[in-house]
Amino acid sequence: MSRPRLLVALTGASGTVYGVRLVQRLVEAGEPVDVVLSEAAGRVLAVEHGLAPDPRTWCPGSSAEALGVYGPKDIMAPPASGSRAPRAMLVVPCSMGTAARIAAGISSNLIERCADVMLKERRPLVLVPRESPLSSLHLRNLLQLAEAGVAIVPAMPAFYTHPRDLEDMIAFVVDRALQSAGVDLPLRHVWRQESAP
What we know:
By secondary structure, the chain is an alpha/beta fold. It has a single domain, classed as Flavin prenyltransferase-like (Rossmann fold, 3-Layer(aba) Sandwich). Helices cover 38% and strands 14% of the residues. The protein has 7 helices and 6 strands. A 6-stranded parallel β-sheet has the order 3-2-1-4-5-6, sandwiched between helices. Strand 5 (125-129), helix 6 (136-147) and strand 6 (151-152) form a beta-alpha-beta unit.
């Protein structure tokens, strides 16, 4: 029997690199993962990083078994069914529009439908919101999601790890999101008492 799959979704917020690095981390660790990008995420990815909206180009050499890709309109994809729900879903980055629609139970695309499935099946759902500043509406939606059991992991890197570069800061957020999803991969940046001033 194959290992239960993870689902990673990228939406149209700034910070698509978090999603790219998260997918790469999972593939490198041998974790089977499915990926879906919203149309807006594809545009942001091109603007911010000049990358194609196809995860197979981010992870060259990965097999179809290791890395599945679904379109945002593919509402018949397996993760859209409670009988095939992923073991965990991460929305990285999560736009405030996506967070609002998930909080309202709206399923207008595959990402929102899969999030709805995770909630009804009581499976781990992690959102990495990327917006600043946050309005009271954003905060209410995130609170409602947290009260429903969703892990909210803001894209806030720590500095006690003494990051050497942007990649270290991205890795910190990626690892915290994976930890919140229950994915058992070692943290690359952990608190050490000697880090304290």
